[in-house]
Amino acid sequence: LLINWIYRRVLGRAYNVLAYLEWIYGHNGAASAAYHQALNWFDYTGLEDERADTLNNLSFLLAILGNYLQAKQYADRSLKLRQQFGQKYPVALSHNTRGLIYALQGEFDWGERECKLASDKFAEIESQRGIGLACNALGYIFRQKGNRWRKNESTIEQTEKDFQGAQGYLHQAVDIFAVTPSSTSATVYEPIRLWEAYNELGSLHDNWARLYRQKSNSIQAQAHYDSSLRYQHQALAVAQSFGLSWQLADTYDDLAQLYAGWGDYDKAKRQLEYALRLITEQYDINPRHVPDDSWGEVYWLVLGKAHFQQGVWLLEQTDRSDSSSDKSGVI
Fold first, then answer.
1. Residue 44: phi, psi to the nearest 5?
2. Model confidence, pTM
């Protein structure tokens, strides 16, 4: 009986680790399947703390895939279990996950509340990694809150405040995660989190530049555009250095959109070509066959965005060409 218990525990942990690796490499469907396998094995062990860890990880993944209802249910179950055990760090992780789930649904105020609660709990136990995770989450949330100005749901002053808040959180995340394995500091070596911080900073300054361009402040717009380029290239360097393949493709796609937004379509197309080269043949479009087991693949998302962007750019360039041509005498 003991051997069977150990066997099931080891398998549960193995599937949990496998799922995390599948997520890192963009295979979200496979990650979901592995997390469910982990839960099945933990059912036989009675290890509710490890079950809570898996539920928390799976809840975030389900939110990424758009299954918000089940994501919230799993996150709540995980939090309840962790609170029963009195585990401070895991409880804080659950609050951060709940905050991200709210944010992915567009409920940014609720997301802010949960992630700030998580940040406070991480600070109480002096967990640098936890603080860094909360900072990345809050950076994303405050950027999205700032972008409400596009729908006239926020004032320019509030937008500035939100963007500044996002910038502060993301700089703190960079300070925590921008270290090497040999570092003796109290910060954390976790390259994927550093990529997240740089990539989010690039998106933030792109949004900020668009705000200033809307306000006809070309000097500030250019400054934020330059900052966006700098941070996206730093994200690119992290992804290249650590073999983060879908993150690399995603950064190239972000750079393509950044260049196109400022009218530099030649550079935009080159960045998009780099992104598409990273997508292997198995993810290319074949009208006669779409693999049944490929759902949730990040590469499908990048591929779809790339083809969509190419269509948008063609329309934009056509519109600019039409508006600049002399149409006198045309009925």
1. -90, -10
2. 0.88
